[in-house]
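S1.2 Input.
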Amino acid sequence: MTALLEVENLETAYGPSQVLFGVSLRLGAGGVATLLGRNGMGKTTTVRSVLGLTPPRSGTVRFLGERIDGRSTDRIARMGLALVPEGRQIFPNLSVNENLRAFAAKRNASRDPWTLERVYALFPRLAERSRNMGNQLSGGEQQMLAIGRALMTNPHLLILDEATEGLAPLIREEIWQCLAALRAQGQSILVIDKYVQRLIELADQHTIIERGRVVWAGSSTQLAADPGLWHRYIGV
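S1.3 Output.
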């Protein structure tokens, strides 16, 4: 599988406090990978480092074969890397329609690009609420909108930070079904979440981070065969 994202020996700090210590991971084109670990262990900082939001002190990040560490976040995003951030961060005073249209772009060469119609087909609930303001949506609807908004950029890689955090079980299930559908369509995805069993079903490769260091990396088959890892490093 051709490498889409390659992170090698990432070291990142907030001021004098170092958070990442040599983090490495790899995601192939068309694949799904996860970052796992308890809260505060460096998962979000890894994503921020990849996106240039918190530039790494050392190490390399390659995307589409190009080195991107040191580039601005805007430039990285325009290469086709889209984030669904923790907390959703949708525009509260824009309608669903306006939130989606504001992010419309074509950052990959797909013959079937994401449009409003495709997003509404993926999330019929958003179609029903297309004229509602962002702050009138439930938490689950806001997460759907955040995913739809990222897809409207037509990214090469979709990153979801805490994909189902705080969602009701039925809504959470809708999000898992959405991600499975995206995978079936060939969308490359990097996802952070705590529901290991669902991630095993969804993803190809997994990386566990503990206190800013990679403590385990392997396939879904390997992770499923060692539930002890889940309890040791993920707390489930």
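S1.4 Remarks. Residues 156 and 198 are 23 Å apart (CA to CA).
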